[in-house]
Amino acid sequence: AKWFGDLEPHLMDLSDSIFEDEKIRYDDIYYSMRRTSSFGTLPLGLPISSDMFLLYYREDLLLENKISPPKTWQELLIAAAALHKTTQTPMNVTSSTTTTTISSSTTTTMFGACIPAQSAYFYALAAPYLQSHGPTQGIFFNPSTMAPLVNNPGFLEALRLFNKLSTFSPNNGQATLSIVRELFLNGKCAFLLDSLDVVTHVNQPSAAVFSTWAATRVPGTREVYDRHQRILVTCNKPDCPFTEDKINYAPFSSTGGWIAAVNRFSVPGRTRSASIRSEDLR
After folding, report:
1. Rounded CA separation 196/48 (Å)
2. How much is the pLDDT for 101?
3. Residue ranges of E strands in the chain
4. pTM higher than 0.70, yes or no?
5. CA-closest candidate to residue 274, choices 48, 101, 43, 89
């Protein structure tokens, strides 16, 4: 991470500590998080927690309806529409002799997609449209001109899809994170876009989805924004050098995470190795 440049003179190189500890299993940590906690080739921190998103889903519902876990945002939209369920409850007015139905209220019994009303979740959807050549390309600004990446077909397509998904989300996409998370835990959401924190909650026996949940990577797109032509193009090489089955994925780190680091001046002797052990992180 470039911001580590300011801290590099003050932080201990943790190479000896984290590479040799088999319990840490540094190579098994998500690559982008290792890069975030490094400066150049030097690991100056150890990732403790990440806000990387996953797409959680009711595995039982998908199996029952013969729906595969979505690989693209378009597939998620189709699946959410298929699994979204509402019921009509008549509202009756009773007189001394008759009962008249004057209207009915709609109750949602299963939300197709639970997505919190926060910008980070929109950018998780927009990222694969805007970034197809790796993280140095950026999703917020054009690095060459610093022009905001908003007035373009990729951003607008992301807005259109996000708006459609919101119709299958609580309160038309205006629900808070705590509300959509609670709905998923109670079995009321077919899909949930959320961080890794949810894993702790869904694995509690008290959760309604304890034995029925599963998770997959955040969906990608089959089209990407070509910044030279200023149009959406089909995801093929060289437009998508990292494509997988003609789908572009651009993981979004959302709101951050936690990194453990050691002040090199807190340990006597600047050449002494830092001692971060897996036992200290429990």
Report:
1. 12
2. 47
3. 38-39, 42-43, 46-50, 53-58, 85-94, 99-110, 191-195, 213-216, 223-226, 231-234, 257-260
4. yes
5. 43
What string of DSSP letters covers 81-113? HHH-EEEEEEEEEE-SS-EEEEEEEEEEEEBS-
SS3 of residue 278 by DSSP: helix
Contact assessment for residue 51 and residue 196, using Cβ atoms and an 8 Å cutoff: yes
| Residue from 38, 15, 223 nearest 132 by CA | 223
Instruction: Give dist(CA 273, CA 264) in Å, integer.
Output: 9
Tokens for 229, please give them: 């032509």
> In this predicted model, what pLDDT tens digit does every residue of 182-202 receive, in sequence order?
999 999 999 999 988 888 899
Determine the pLDDT at residue 21. 75
User: Which pLDDT score is estimated for 13?
Assistant: 87
Q: How far apart are CA 218 and CA 54, in angstroms?
A: 5
Note the pLDDT of residue 281. 47
Distance, CA of 167 to chain centre:
19
The per-residue pLDDT for 181 is 92
Give the pair of three-digit tokens for residue 88: 């009509």
What is the rounded CA–CA span in Å between residue 231 and residue 156?
A: 11
Residues of the chain predicted below pLDDT 50? 91-95, 100-104, 269-275, 277-278, 281-282
Please tell me the predicted confidence (pLDDT) of residue 273: 43
Measured CA to CA, the distance from residue 70 to residue 215 in angstroms comes to 11
Q: How far, rounded to the nearest angstrom, does the alpha carbon of residue 221 sit from its chain's CA centroid?
A: 14
Burial 30-40 (b: 16+ CB within 10 A, else e): eeebbebbbbe
Cα 31 to the center of its chain, rounded Å: 16
